[in-house]
Each structure stands twice: as structure tokens, then as C-alpha cells.
Amino acid sequence: MEAAADNQSPSSSDVDVTPRGASSAVLRALQLIQYDDSDSKLQAAKEIRRLTKTSQRCRRLLAEAVIPLVSMLRVDSPQSHHESALLALLNLAVKDERNKMSIVEAGALDHVIRFLQSENINLQESATAALLTLSASISNKPIIGASGAIPLLVNILKHGTTQAKVDAVMALSNLSTYTDNLTVIIETDPVPSVVTLLKSSKRSSKTAEKCCSVIESMVGFDEGRTALAAEDGGILAVVEVLENGTRQAREHAVGALLTICESDRCKYRELILKEGVIPGLLELTVQGTPKSQTKAQTLLRLLRETPYPRSEFQPDTLENIVCNIISQIDGDEQSSKAKKMLAEMVQVSMEQSLRHLQQRALVCTPTDL
């Protein structure tokens, strides 16, 4: 699909266009898109799609094609026009803030929402990709949120194709950064579908990163926390991203777990601990982003503390070892010393992690294997 191709490195054939050639092609496309006959418009849309696939310069030069392209999305336009015009608009919007805004201002959003509900799978995928790109604009976030698109994106997250689901969760991640959209998103109960997508994704992927971004936003609500805890393997999936995700994904994952634990420590502490989170948290205190390090240290303290006097624990229990390590890392210790302590902690926690894996293996059924 075109949206997927947009994220790939351009081939030499895609970009080997001289400035003079590009200008001539741009002028021809702008002329064709103004003609009344449908064949010329369709040819122009395809040409604009091609020219703007990899060229930021062409996206600027072809900005005036936005309005006639949007007009091709109307219900009374030939169906053959819809996808070509939508993909041309999608390419025009990539990495161009002004075009993103112009496309929404020209009335494209109503048509995109209509296509999200289409039985045409290709059109539905293209519309989802278009919303992903348009939702990256700060100015567009409140408009898209108020348009009714969010419930449709969640529906695609539940029932769409694999590519559409990935684009939908990324669009929801974009939209969730605008506060007023969060209430709308949480009302659609997206957490189960996001967790399902997360569990099927590679933990170090961009998809996992965006899933954790949405989860971090949703667990700020009681409904989101309840949904994540109730989802089979939900917290475990977040812990696995904390261990193996990208730096940004790990930051979202530890942020989500911290928010959950802070909301009701007594309710969620054991749920988080039983998924073997300690080694990953300790690694984050040394190797994570500054935000991850702070959040990991705070979460470790919450997981460490108990209502019982510390004297009831032996000096070398896991909790007291964690306490000792964190108290030393809190200062301006050298990185090498912190890493050495981390290695010692991982050694101590191996037995606990092994027990956890054995317990998980015992509940597996033959169909799980």
C-alpha cells in the first residue's frame, strides 16, 4: 500500500528527477487537475501521487492541488477517483504541516470518515493511513477528535486488516496527546484491542511503542487501569516492552506501570511484581532515558515498600537488595559502578525469574505450544 511505501527509503528511480523535469511534471499535473473531464483528473491524481511520494519540494509546489483533489472525494465522484485522490492527498500531507492543515480545511475529513466505514478494504486502509498522517498536526488533533473519527479508528483496531490496525493505533497515539481527546478515546474501550495488537507485535517495534503510548494515556483513567488488569497477559505485555522495547517504548511502559501502581498500590503491586518486572526496572535506572530512570526508581520504591517492619526481612532478600541498590544509584554515582551493581542484582534475581517462567509454563495448554 502507498502509505507503507512512504515509510521506506526511496529508490534511485523514485528520486532521479532533474529540477527542470520535476517543474515540468508539476505544471502538467496542476493543469490536468483543473480540467473538467474525469479522465484528466484521474490522471492528474495519479501523477501527483507519484511526484509527491518522495519529494518534499513537489509537495510544496503541488499544494494548490489540495482543493481539486478533495473535490474528487465527493460521493457523486466516480468511485475510481476516490482512492487515487486520497492517496495523492496522503502523499501531499507527509512531512508537510501546511498541507496537513489545508487538507482538513478543504473539507477532506468528512470524506475520510466515510471511507473508514467503507466495505472496500483498500479504501478503508487508505483512509486510516490518511488519518494517521493528518493527526500528526497539532492543529488537526482537536478537529479530528471532534469529528467522530475516534470510535471508527477503535473499530478498525478491532476488526481491520493488520496494516489498518497498525495505522489506527498510531493515529490514536497522535490524538491522545490532545487532552480533550482522551475522554473520547477512553469511552470507546480501546485497551483490549490495543493489548491484543501489542501481544502480536515484536516488542522492539514501532507498533509496540505506539501501543504502549496509548496504554500509558489510558491508565490515567480508572477504566483504563481496570481494562488492562483484566486483560489476560496485559500487564505482562507491558513488562516485556519495558525489558525489550525501544527507548521511547520503555519510557511509555514504565510510565504506565508507575501510574497504575500510584493509583492504588495495594491493588496493583502484586499484579506487577508477579510478572518479573524487577530486573527490567533496574536496567532502566542505569540505561533508560532520564524520564525512564526517574520513573523506574520511583516504581521500584513503591514495589519495595511493604506495610511490615523491615526487620522481618532477612538482609539479603530481594526487596532489601533492591532498596540498597536504589539508595546508592540515587546519588551521582559513576555509570560503571551502577552497571556493576545491576549485574549483581540480575544474578540474584535469576532464581526468582526462573520460578516465574516455570509457573507460567505450568499453566500452558497444548494449544499454547
Automatic annotation (TrEMBL):
Q: Where are the ARM repeats?
A: 107-149, 148-188
Domain U-box positions: 40-305
**InterPro entries according to UniProt:** ARM-like (IPR011989), ARM-type_fold (IPR016024), ARM_PUB (IPR058678), Armadillo (IPR000225)
Q: Which organism is it from?
A: Gossypium anomalum
Q: Which SUPFAM superfamilies match?
A: ARM repeat
Which SMART domains does the entry mention? Answer: ARM
Composition bias (Polar residues) maps to 1-15
User: What's this protein's name?
Assistant: U-box domain-containing protein
Instruction: Specify the superkingdom.
Output: Eukaryota
**Keywords for this entry?**
Repeat, Ubl conjugation pathway
